[in-house]
Write a structure and sequence with these properties.
The complex is a heterodimer of chains A (361) and B (145). Chain A contains 12 helices and 8 strands. In chain A, the strands form 3 sheets. A 3-stranded antiparallel sheet of chain A has the order 1-2-3, with helices on one face. Chain B is elongated, with a radius of gyration of 24 Å. The C terminus of chain B is likely disordered. The chains are: A alpha+beta (361), B alpha+beta (145). The complex binds iron/sulfur cluster (SF4) (2 copies).
């Protein structure tokens, strides 16, 4: 049969960021997809040569506008590991709380974009309206809505008072209760089921074979979550990864819907279990220059991110590298796109939750 | 096949019809900022001792200062509002304000016009001796914002 190539992106109504896929079609069926990345490369990693390690964290945050907190945290934690800095306990708890709040806002943002991709604009507005309340908490506690600049090597830059923490938990729980109705729409609405159920099925074996990470892997039944390793104080919380087994687009939506509720609960647990006391130290002074190399792993909303840092004893690092979750999920996306209908391509792309800015840095 | 009469969105949509909008009537109604919100960098020439601590810490190289020339400059369009310089300054000369006027990109469109977002200050007297009344050198010579 005659083959047609349809270029998709870098500008496309469904894509929030410039991903390019050349779709090879036979009639309406996609037989091959060739991705191109590089449209939004900013060379942030190379800036280590010009910016000193202490301030580079504020650059790392700008890799992505959604996981900005997690990027800043990953860099700070990795540097603390190299420099053997003991971070005050309160700082680690605060990081965990902000990290889980990032997950809530990221998933709400994505659910909105996902709803928009399958043509449910009303639902898109509802998700973003809920997300706005999370951003308000961020602005109140860090001073920024999107870029928080609150991590530094040795701790965090702002404290949250105990009364404020209790208020945040109350606000989030109220938000979670309100979100339950939206969650029910995602899980039960017949038009959504019709559009997503059975579309883009990634089996458990395939997910293993292409090394899917994050909600993508968890929707295929693989309990893969860096939080299970217990680092960054997750061992002090009761945590069970959210799993679905269907592996289709709907399962990926449902995993994220449930992770919002789970993250709100993790924040509640963290606030209950962290030692009380305003005015406890939140940072320590870091002296000297780093030497050595290290890896650090974190569970971002989109999956596992890996940072590599090599330092040579000067003020500038020798190498900084981030392997972001979207990069790991692109092979899975290509696998799903092959063999599907052209009309399902936007939904499949959206349900991996692509963050191209992260991928290309 | 799911039940086509299950319409979970309908109740919500009907409630939205009669409830207040979630958005504000911008620009007549603006969103209030929170107490800790970061904003635009503001500089106070009178207290600065031109030590250069802030300049060394700024991740975007947005600040310039010279002790000999008693000169300080901010490139507002380079600044990413991280607040590191505010923390670094021992003299409390730098602040962040959400009420500062916005930096307009269009400034400087004409030939010879000042660079957009560029602010500079010159102090012609040694620090410590207060500027005399009416002495133009004491006040900030703001080129453009
Ligand atoms: S706020 Fe940050 S980017 Fe802006 S001038 Fe200060 S240190 Fe530089
Ligand atoms: S603003 Fe503060 S840190 Fe910067 S040069 Fe002046 S006194 Fe030093």
């Amino acid at each position: 049969m005659k083959r047609t190539v349809v270029p998709m992106g870098p500008q496309h109504p469904v894509l929030p960021e410039p991903l390019v896929l050349d779709l090879v079609l036979e009639d309406e069926k996609v037989v091959d997809a060739i991705p191109t990345i590089g449209y939004i490369h900013r060379g942030l990693e190379a800036l280590v040569e010009r910016i000193e390690f202490g301030e580079f964290g504020y650059v790392v945050e700008r890799i992505c506008g959604i996981c900005s907190f997690m990027h800043g945290m990953g860099y700070a934690v990795a540097m603390e590991k190299i420099m053997a800095v003991e971070v005050p306990e309160r700082a680690s708890w605060l990081r965990l709380i902000w990290a889980e709040m990032s997950r809530v806002h990221s998933h709400l943002l994505w659910l909105g974009l996902g709803a928009d991709a399958f043509g449910f604009e009303n639902l898109f507005m509802h998700c973003w309206r809920t997300r706005e309340q999370v951003l308000d908490i961020f602005e109140k506690t860090t001073g920024g809505r999107i870029i928080f600049s609150v991590n530094k090597i040795g701790g965090v830059r702002r404290d949250i008072e105990d009364s404020e923490l209790a208020a945040i938990v109350a606000t989030l729980q109220e938000l979670g209760a309100g979100f339950a109705e939206t969650a029910r729409i995602f899980e039960t609405d017949p038009s959504i089921r019709h559009r997503l159920s059975g579309v883009g099925v990634l089996s458990r074996e395939d997910a293993h074979a292409v090394d899917a990470v994050g909600p993508m892997a968890r929707a295929s039944g693989i309990a893969l979550d860096t939080r299970l390793t217990g680092t960054h104080f997750y061992d002090r919380l009761d945590f069970e990864p959210v799993l679905e087994t269907a592996g289709d687009c709907l399962a990926r939506v449902v995993v994220r819907v449930r992770e919002i509720t789970q993250s709100i609960d993790l924040i509640r647990q963290a606030v209950e279990r962290m030692p009380k006391g305003d005015g406890a130290p939140i940072d320590v002074k870091v002296r000297g220059n780093p030497t050595g190399e290290t890896f650090e792993r974190l569970e971002q909303p989109r999956g596992e991110v890996i940072y590599y840092i090599k330092a040579n004893g000067t003020k500038n690092l020798e190498r900084f590298r981030a392997r972001t979750p979207t990069f790991a999920n692109i092979p899975a996306m290509i696998k799903l796109v092959k063999g599907c209908d052209l009309a399902d391509v936007p939904n499949i792309i959206m349900t991996i939750d692509p963050c191209i800015s992260c991928t290309e840095r | 096949m799911a039940n086509p009469f299950n319409l979970p969105m309908v109740g919500r949509s009907l409630r939205n019809l009669v409830s207040r909008p979630a958005t504000r009537r911008y620009p007549s109604e603006t969103r209030p900022h929170f107490a800790g919100t970061r904003g635009t960098i503001e500089f106070d020439l009178d207290t600065c001792v031109f030590c250069g601590l802030c300049v060394r810490r700024c991740p975007t190289l947005a600040l310039t200062c010279s002790r000999e020339d008693r000169f300080f400059a901010i490139e507002q369009l380079r600044c990413i509002a991280c607040g590191v310089c505010v923390d670094a300054c021992n003299k409390d000369s730098l602040h962040m304000s959400v009420d500062a006027p916005r930096v307009h990109l269009h400034t400087g469109a004409a030939p010879g016009a000042p660079r957009p977002g560029h602010q500079e200050w010159h102090q012609q007297q040694p620090a410590g001796s207060p500027p005399g009344p009416g002495d133009a050198a004491g006040g900030p010579a703001v080129a453009a914002i």
